[in-house]
């Protein structure tokens, strides 16, 4: 079948009519250039390109037997330069050359499609007005205009962005760039999973390139939508560069100076294994390829597509929109990952796809970010815990399935249609819980879309404290993870609670903790007490190189009494604390800890065999990569340690059953008690508690020089086993915040008065409640009261006259816009206002009359005051 010859006037008419009738509003607002430029290959005219104003292009087929409008864009101008990286030109040449080749087959199927295409030309020739009947558009919805290399800043200087971390700053590759664009759209994951090494063994760049996804929290707020010819800082570039580089490693990129390469069919495994996404790859021959493409776009789910080029290479693009107007022609919006160049709408499905022809090799469909379990939120009651479900803001979720595992047991489905992102589990006992979640998205549960399990340790104690008891032949160990998280060095804190029952007659220097070639924490003799503790560091041959000890301090440790032990190192100084009191310190540089391949042992040491077993109890173990204590502090026996970004290991040791131990820092899994010779035992401490109140808890407001405050007061006439009081505050009588802890008298048979002043009051209702905590960690709320703080209606100053300072009263809860001091001549006088106590320093003023002017939101106060000379 021969090509139908088209006159320039006819081509212009078709292009103009399409511009007027397009489903795309930006096209309808564009102006068409009168002349076109042909795309030629081996003397064959493949297509004609019309330029648009203010920006863009429209590409018209060269034959009536091919669908008329090949592509259009209002986002970029057409690049006619003939180079290998001109992705659009390469794609068009391949597409049009092969479509023209199909015409020459001249079989029945070809003639049918050609006649259908010719009818589309005829339809466009006779329609020149826009109609909503032809208007169907979804997307585009991506905002990031990213690329790999050749990026310039707002001063036209070349910068490294997508290639910030790549070897030799080579391109991260189009497969990885397309992935990163999609991930930036979802701003997911918050943190990756696992690690991977890309072994690049061929070409101009060889090496083993490693990414620790699990240790990376991606800096989504620092990433910009655009970098090309725009202003950005180094943090903006590093954030995108890290993401692009990690995507490259995840798909085993072959880094090259003239273009890095991988394959789009590797993307699903990378998404699923490292980035908390589900997805799957399909070739273009899949029966549901184009319907699924459009379904994903309608659901605002971008699709990564593999496209062929004329030089035998491929390219990865992102599809984030489709539209349809006259006839049955469908256009897909593509992002080419080249800083916005070539982005636009393309008839990539073409007329011939039903005959098996397509420039599309395949695509990654159903790219859906997994839901995840966040850090638990603990309430005031022992088992009041909220398990957050974390999802991408762009995820159109309907509901969740939730599974629960207790102390290493099998997972049980506990919710099949949960519709809130805050899950409230029904917990009745302490232990190590794990949760998995799966989101229903657009009415579907996608395969491989179940989250990784996340630990939720119920760290609040039972009605009695739970701890681990060692009887002289028990121990357990924590083995380092693949990321060597136990290898802390210069700044650290090692802390625990122990209750030593006796010294082991079968050994010397009973061990609390020990990591061979790194450190030991163990018991030593003390002539003034039952025992003392010693912390030492060791070299690679296990020799002692630095030491802290408590036997020379005035802190005496007794059997059957709990003690908090903490070793805290900051910079060049290392402290030993017992019950929050500093007992020893050192500037020895050998307290910097070594790296080690050995496990961390508890209750004994392992140096080729187990020895030096401890007899006593242990509870709450925390290791941190920061110095938590630099001065004396007050630890509370019944207050569990908390985890944060500096926590390396946190064992609450309150499972109360089983042999599995949970690490709340989530760095270490599968930690179990040793069965040889015996398991340590779980133990509860019950205690009789009695507190008799003489005066119940009350709250009263009071005015002082610094403003209003609330006096909280209560008193007891008898206390037994009383550890502390906690004061909670609320503005709505629903959400409570702990504001302070007050030490109790423990045991008292007399009236004890307690008082606390809260100066951080706000206008309106301020609610307070009192919580009493026993030594055994039982607690109860024993009182609640409220105070209403009213705004001051007047502002006063005192003392007046004054020689040095002037205090302003009545500013609590009032927004101050400006404060001025004006002298008798009307000139403004410079002064210093101390906002902490609302005082003005007038000591440098000359004696005389002044005016204080205070401008509020709705009024202005002016008061005069007299500055007098200081008496000498």
Describe this structure as you would to a colleague.
The protein has 872 residues and is mainly beta. The chain has seven domains: 8-130, no CATH class; 151-278, Cathepsin B, Chain A (Alpha-Beta Complex), CATH 3.90.70; 280-367; 372-458, Immunoglobulins (Immunoglobulin-like), CATH 2.60.40.10; 467-686, Sandwich (Jelly Rolls), CATH 2.60.120; 699-789, Immunoglobulins (Immunoglobulin-like, Sandwich); 796-867, Immunoglobulin-like (Sandwich). 12% of the residues lie in helices and 40% in strands. It has eight helices and 54 strands. The model is unreliable at 352-357 (pLDDT under 50).
Which key phrases capture this entry?
eight-stranded antiparallel β-sheet, globular, 12% helix, mainly beta, 8 helices, eleven-stranded antiparallel β-sheet, 7 domains, 872 residues, 40% strand, 54 strands, Cathepsin B, Chain A
Total tally of structural domains: 7
Point out poorly predicted stretches: 352-357
CATH C-level class of the largest domain is Mainly Beta
Structural class: mainly beta
Give the C-alpha Rg: 36 Å
CATH architecture annotation name of the largest domain: Sandwich
Largest sheet: 11 strands, antiparallel
Intertermini distance: 114 Å
From the spread of the alpha carbons, the general shape counts as globular
Number of helices: 8
Quick one: how many beta strands? 54
């Amino acid at each position: 079948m021969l090509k139908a010859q088209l006159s320039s006037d006819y081509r212009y008419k078709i292009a103009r009519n399409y511009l007027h009738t397009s489903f795309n509003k930006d096209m309808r607002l564009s102006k068409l250039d009168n002349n076109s430029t042909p795309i030629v290959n081996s003397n064959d005219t493949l297509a004609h390109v019309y330029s648009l104003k203010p920006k863009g292009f429209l590409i018209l087929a060269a034959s009536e037997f091919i669908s008329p409008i090949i592509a259009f864009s209002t986002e970029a101008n057409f690049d006619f330069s003939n180079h290998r990286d001109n992705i659009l030109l390469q794609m068009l040449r391949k597409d049009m050359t092969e479509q023209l080749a199909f015409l020459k087959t001249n079989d029945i199927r070809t003639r049918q499609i050609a006649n259908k295409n010719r009818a589309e030309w005829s339809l466009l020739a006779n329609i020149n007005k826009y109609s909503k009947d032809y208007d169907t558009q979804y997307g585009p919805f991506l905002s990031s205009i990213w690329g790999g290399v050749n990026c310039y800043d707002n001063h036209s200087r070349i910068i490294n962005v997508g290639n910030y971390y790549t070897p030799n700053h080579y391109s991260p590759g189009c497969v990885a760039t397309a992935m990163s664009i999609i991930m930036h759209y979802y701003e997911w994951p918050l943190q990756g999973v696992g690690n991977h090494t890309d072994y690049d063994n061929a070409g101009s760049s060889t090496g083993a390139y490693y990414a620790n996804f699990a240790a990376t929290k991606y800096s989504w707020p620092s990433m910009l939508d655009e970098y090309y010819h725009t202003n950005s800082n180094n943090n903006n570039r590093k954030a995108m560069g890290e993401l692009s580089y990690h995507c490259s490693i995840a798909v085993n990129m072959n880094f090259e100076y003239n273009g890095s390469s991988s394959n789009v069919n590797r993307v699903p495994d990378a998404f699923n294994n490292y980035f908390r996404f589900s997805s799957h790859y399909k070739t273009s021959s899949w029966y549901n390829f184009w319907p699924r493409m459009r379904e994903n776009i309608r659901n605002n789910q971008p699709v990564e597509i593999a496209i062929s080029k004329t030089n035998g290479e491929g390219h990865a693009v992102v599809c984030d929109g489709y539209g349809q107007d006259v006839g049955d022609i469908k256009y897909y919006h593509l992002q080419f990952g080249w800083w916005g160049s070539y982005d636009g709408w393309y008839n990539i499905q073409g007329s011939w796809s039903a005959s098996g022809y397509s420039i599309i090799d395949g695509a990654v469909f159903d790219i859906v970010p997994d839901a995840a379990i966040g850090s638990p939120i603990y309430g005031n009651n022992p088992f009041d815990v909220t398990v957050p479900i974390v999802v991408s803001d762009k995820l159109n979720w309907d509901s969740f399935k939730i599974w629960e595992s207790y102390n290493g047991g099998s997972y049980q489905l506990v919710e099949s249609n949960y519709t809130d992102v805050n899950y409230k589990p029904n917990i009745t006992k302490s232990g190590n819980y794990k949760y998995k979640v799966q989101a229903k998205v657009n009415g579907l549960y996608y395969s491989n879309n179940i989250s990784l399990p996340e630990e939720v340790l119920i760290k609040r104690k039972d009605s009695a404290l739970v701890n681990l008891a060692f009887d002289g032949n028990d121990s357990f160990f924590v083995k380092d993870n693949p990321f060597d998280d136990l290898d802390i060095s210069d700044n650290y804190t090692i802390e625990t609670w122990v209750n030593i029952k006796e010294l082991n007659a079968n050994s010397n220097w009973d061990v609390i903790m020990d990591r061979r070639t790194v450190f030991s924490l163990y018991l030593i003799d003390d002539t003034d007490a039952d025992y003392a503790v010693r912390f030492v560091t060791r070299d690679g041959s296990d020799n002692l190189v630095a030491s802290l000890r408590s036997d020379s301090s005035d802190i005496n440790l007794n059997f059957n009494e709990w003690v908090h032990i903490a070793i805290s190192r900051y910079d060049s100084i290392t402290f030993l604390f017992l019950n929050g009191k500093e007992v020893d310190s050192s500037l020895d540089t050998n307290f910097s800890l070594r790296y080690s391949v050995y496990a961390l042992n508890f209750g004994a040491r392992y140096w080729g065999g187990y020895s030096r077993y401890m007899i006593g109890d242990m509870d709450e173990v925390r290791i941190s990569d920061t110095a938590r204590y630099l001065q004396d502090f007050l630890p509370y026996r019944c207050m569990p340690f908390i985890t944060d970004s500096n926590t390396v290991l946190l064992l609450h040791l309150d499972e109360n059953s089983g042999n599995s131990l949970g690490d709340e820092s989530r760095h270490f899994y599968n930690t179990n008690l040793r069965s040889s010779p015996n398991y340590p035992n779980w133990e509860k401490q019950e205690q009789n508690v009695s507190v008799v109140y003489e005066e119940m808890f009350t709250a009263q407001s009071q005015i002082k020089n610094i403003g209003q405050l609330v006096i909280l007061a209560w008193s007891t006439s008898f206390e037994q086993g009383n550890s502390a009081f906690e004061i909670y505050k609320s503005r709505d009588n629903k959400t409570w915040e702990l504001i302070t802890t007050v030490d109790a008298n423990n045991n008292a048979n007399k009236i004890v008065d307690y008082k606390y002043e809260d100066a951080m009051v706000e206008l309106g209702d301020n609610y307070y409640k009192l919580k009493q905590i026993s030594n055994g960690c039982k607690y109860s709320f024993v009182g609640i009261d409220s105070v209403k703080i009213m705004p001051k209606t007047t502002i006063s100053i005192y003392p007046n006259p004054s020689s040095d300072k002037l205090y302003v009263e009545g500013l609590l809860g009032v927004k101050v816009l400006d404060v001025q001091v004006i002298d008798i001549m009307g000139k403004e006088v410079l002064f210093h206002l101390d906002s902490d106590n609302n005082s003005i320093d007038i000591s440098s003023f000359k004696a005389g009359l002044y005016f204080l002017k205070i401008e509020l939101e709705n009024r202005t106060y002016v008061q005069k005051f007299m500055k007098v000379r200081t008496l000498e």
